[in-house]
Amino acid sequence: MIILGITFIVLLAIGLPVAFTVGLSALSFFVTEQVPVQIVVQKMVSSTQSFSLLAVPFFVLAGNLMNETGITSRLIKFCNLVTGHMRGGLAQVSVLLSCLMGGISGSATADAAMESRILGPDMEKRGYSKGFTAAILAMGGLITSTIPPSLGLILYGVTGEVSIGRLFLAGLVPGILMTIVLMAAVAMISKKRDYKPEHDKFPSIGEVLKGLVENIWALMFPVILIVGIRFGIFTPSEAGAFAVVYALIVGLFIYRELTVAKLMECLATTAVDLAVIMFIIICSNAFGYAIVTGQLPQTLARMITAVSDNKYIILLIVMLFVFFVGMFMEATANVLLLTPIFLPIITSYGFDPVHFGVMYMILITMGGMTPPIGVTMYTTCSILGCPIEVYTKESIPFVASIIILLVLLAVFPQLVLFLPNLVYGAAV
Length: 428
Fold this sequence. Notes:
Elements: H1 2-13, H2 18-32, H3 37-46, H4 55-67, H5 71-83, H6 89-101, H7 108-118, H8 120-125, H9 130-144, H10 151-160, H11 164-193, H12 205-214, H13 216-230, H14 236-254, H15 260-293, H16 296-307, H17 311-326, H18 331-348, H19 353-367, H20 375-384, H21 388-411, H22 414-424
Helix pairs in contact: 1-2, 2-15, 3-15, 4-14, 4-15, 5-6, 5-12, 6-9, 6-11, 7-9, 7-20, 9-11, 9-20, 9-21, 10-18, 10-19, 11-19, 11-21, 11-22, 13-14, 15-18, 16-18, 17-18, 17-19, 18-19, 19-21
């Protein structure tokens, strides 16, 4: 295990991409421990042989397709109508847009990149500081990755053998609460800095209803998915296939903005995205086999449980560790590597795996929005040309808001479990 740890730290420190870092670290362990290569290859290949994992490529393709159908531009217009009268108008628009995009994209980094390109320049023109703009556009992606269909929750469900349907429902209330918390933080900062609203008056009921009608195809999408999964119309993987067909129908026949050229571009982008994700998955599976063989989960469990018998102290230790690791590694790899280690520990203390999973994914994803190596942070800052140190300072109020929300979710688990228990019944 020492060779594994040293190799991993060294490769990560020199800036090697995380998938290669994970794969080469695992290889170093297998070579030193003289594990047959056939076993390693079998473990890597077997990680891709999961029916539930089919949901990932389908939802990635569906998200890319929907971004080309005109749904995004219509959602921006609707968000501007609903929140443009509030202080920090465009910033509020970005937060609400992230909430609505949660039912389409499912990826924090994809959402942050899209909003940075579309809303970022306009926010700076209206006097918003570059750091504030980058921080709220990046942190808004946290909502997208919590509200279903969340790619992170799918991977957590597959890895930890937790119901994806329950996870999807469990993400709704925290995602909405996160939207409210971030909008409140934006309002307070905007009042202090005198960031102006986009327009002076509240929208009329007629205007809101018209906006809802225009966006009905986007707003109905997550509802159809959740209802379909709950009533057995389709599995999560089949729901992903439905999402692709749904996006094609909306783009080709309803909004008629999806051209052949855009479709080819979507397919190419999706192929690249999936190649990265699947490479991380197979390397992470080999790494996971190495740490299980080296009995790291058992060692960590003994160390953590020796600290305290209080389940909330144990939860705090695990969450701090997860957040710290998330600062250095990409979220997909973290989910695949850490879930088999920490989920058994947490459930042994009586925590519901769905409750833990939502908080766990929020923290892992937020690690990508913090220095030193946050992928979402670097994506947003590079697009907007914002220095990392400026971004870090401006992101502090938003990170604090999310931490307060996580404390509430930990103390009041029914905020997470209410919907899944209502629809599926209490877990046994």
